[in-house]
From TrEMBL:
Species of provenance: Sphingomonas tagetis
InterPro entries according to UniProt: FAD-binding_Monooxygenases, FAD/NAD-bd_sf
GO terms assigned for molecular function: monooxygenase activity
Pfam families xref list: Pyr_redox_3
Cofactor(s) the protein requires to work: FAD
UniProt keyword Acyltransferase present: no
Keywords assigned by UniProt, alphabetized: FAD, Flavoprotein, Monooxygenase, NADP, Oxidoreductase
Family to which this protein belongs: Belongs to the FAD-binding monooxygenase family.
Protein name: NAD(P)/FAD-dependent oxidoreductase
Length: 536
């Protein structure tokens, strides 16, 4: 029997494998894709690029990797990130630990044998004392259920399942549905190729300019000097690490302070500087942007002005202006030439909020009685986030109950790490953890280290089974639900609260209390002998 099976070989799964192997556990990885990379393996649509800066969207645990890898751009594109993850897998000799091209269909806890029995679609099976699910927070794509989709005579594709042989849009009529982070990255790229591009927009979101640039020798030298400090800040902050790498110190400082520390003129100047600096920094220019509605409105108004300045047709500009939700409560997008793209003659914005898509026909898509003829439809329609990859596995706990049943009213976890009724099972970046509301790479590292510490303590204490204590799960889940009421996050229908998936319970999915508070809770858990878990 294996000690541990790790499902998923993205950033989290890879590091988990490494850590457990270093600690002397027998461990095996299972990955649905034919290569490492996780989200970065699948999301290879044109324009796919990380909207967190490459220097800080990297592993921090390995001096060898740090020394030998050199990022070329401020915001790395998908191919470079995929090369990075491959480099790490090779450098640390992790590939031999992984069974690729195997999708886990079921994982069932066997009470008698005290182990997880895991099966894949290719017929591989495993028995493992512990199960770690590193299946990724945004890995299960959602295709909208639009009548007639099967009759479409052109081709359609989801951004998160982009074929390795990419579609050739040259001169073609293309429709993109969805204007979240994926949509706004791919729309400008497709517009450059397509004969005609229709963007079907349901909700206008905020997009800030990335202002991506090549990294210079001087940038790398500055990073080397500052990286320990920046990484330390980005481990604990929701704010830091979002766009402030290589930023002058004075600009960084203002982001940690509430808006009321500044006069209206100073605030405007700060926002203008951040807008020009580009990237995620503008998402949260003041510490209370996501807490105080008045501050949020002021930042949102600033961005609305920028959209009006950029888009030449005032009617189109008005349709692109986000309204009706607080800035940041739907994830703000970071893009390149997004608003400028609507000044092109071959791009047309179609409003599907007031008139939803009626149906797909063999020739195209019907909205408000008009048939838009299309050769391709690109669905940039997002993910069943945080829980989708887990609930799509037949995951059965101690009494045969599925995770779907356990989470019928929304996910309940202890520290976002484990679930009552599912002994010896652990998650990385799962619901109830800071996950997508933090630097995910660093949170994965933290959780994987914690799991390593915990399983080592189990081994040293001669224990082979842990169970989440029901009260501990209730307490943590209540805290996750309570802490979100202190911010504006719960106010908006977004994938953060499961609102994008029909029938999914509407509850906050990630822990919104910040990675610093989360780490402190986890440290207490380790230092106090793992209360919340019953060990035997
Ligand atoms: O998905 P989304 P995404 N009919 O859910 C629309 C990460 N990411 O793939 O807002 C019509 O944000 C939907 O409309 P509405 C990042 O965390 C990171 O873009 O629901 N429209 C929305 O416009 C991001 O937040 C990077 O009204 C429908 C869009 O589709 C997360 O992944 C890059 C519809 C979906 O937006 C998800 O981003 C890309 C329907 N039935 C993504 N259903 C990085 O750079 C949905 N929509 C790191």
């Amino acid at each position: 029997m294996l000690d541990v099976t790790v499902v998923g070989a993205g950033f989290g799964g890879l590091y988990m494998l490494y850590r457990l192997r270093e600690l002397g556990f027998s461990v095996r990885g299972i990955e649905a894709a034919s290569d490492v990379g996780g989200a970065w393996y699948w999301n290879r649509y044109p324009g796919a690029r990380c909207d967190v800066e490459s220097l800080v969207y990297s592993f921090t645990f390995s001096p060898e990797v740090d020394r030998e890898w050199r990022w070329t751009e401020r915001y790395a594109a998908q191919p470079e990130i995929q090369r990075y993850i491959s480099f790490v897998a090779d450098r640390l000799d992790l590939r031999p630990l992984i069974d690729f091209s195997n999708h886990v269909e079921s994982a069932v806890f066997d009470r008698e044998a005290n182990c997880w029995r895991i099966r894949t679609d290719k017929g591989l099976s495993y028995a493992s004392r512990y199960l770690v699910l590193a299946t990724g927070p945004i890995s299960k794509p959602v295709l909208p259920d639009i009548p007639g989709i099967g009759e479409f005579e052109g081709s359609y594709v989801h951004t998160a399942r982009w074929p390795k042989a990419p579609p050739d849009f040259a001169g073609k009529r293309v429709g993109v549905v969805g204007t979240g982070s994926s949509g706004i990255q791919t729309i400008p790229m497709i517009a450059e190729q397509a004969g005609k591009l229709y963007v079907f927009q349901r909700t206008a979101n905020y997009t800030v300019p990335a202002r991506n640039v090549a990294l210079t020798e001087a940038d790398i030298a500055q990073w080397d000097a500052e990286k320990d400090e920046i990484r330390a800040a980005s481990r604990i902050g929701m704010v830091s690490g979002l766009g402030d790498v290589l930023m002058p110190e004075a600009m960084r400082g203002t982001r940690m302070r509430p808006a009321s520390d500044f006069t209206p003129e100073q605030r405007r100047e700060i926002m203008e500087r951040l807008w020009q600096w580009g990237g995620g920094a503008m998402i949260i220019p003041f510490a209370d942007t996501w807490i105080d509605p008045a501050v949020n409105d002021e930042v949102a108004d600033f961005m609305r002005e920028k959209i009006r300045e950029t888009v030449k047709d005032p009617e189109v500009a008005e349709r692109l202006i986000p309204r009706g939700f607080y800035l940041g409560t739907k994830r703000v997008c970071v893009g390149t030439s997004y608003y400028e793209t609507y000044n092109r003659d071959n791009v047309e914005l179609v409003d599907i909020k007031s008139h939803p898509i009626e149906r797909i026909t063999p020739r195209g898509m019907v909205v408000d009685g008009t048939e838009y003829e299309l050769d391709y439809i690109v669905f940039a329609t997002g993910f069943d986030a945080l829980t989708g990859a887990l609930t799509s596995i037949e995951l059965r706990g101690e009494h045969g109950q599925t995770i779907n049943e356990a989470w019928a009213e929304g996910p309940q976890t202890f520290l976002g790490l484990a679930v009552e009724g599912f002994p010896n099972m652990l998650m990385l970046s799962g619901p109830g953890s800071p996950s997508v509301l933090s630097n995910v790479v660093q949170t994965n590292e933290f959780q994987a280290d914690l799991i390593g510490r915990f399983l080592s303590a189990m081994r040293e204490g001669g224990k082979t089974r842990f169970d989440v204590v029901p009260e501990a799960q209730i307490e943590w889940t209540d805290h996750v639900h309570e802490v979100v009421t202190r911010s504006l996050f719960g106010t908006t229908d977004s994938w953060y609260v499961g609102a994008n998936v029909p029938g999914k319970p509407r509850v906050i999915l990630p822990y919104a209390g910040g990675p610093g508070a989360y780490r402190a809770k986890c440290e207490e858990f380790c230092e106090d002998g793992f209360p919340g878990f019953a060990l035997r």
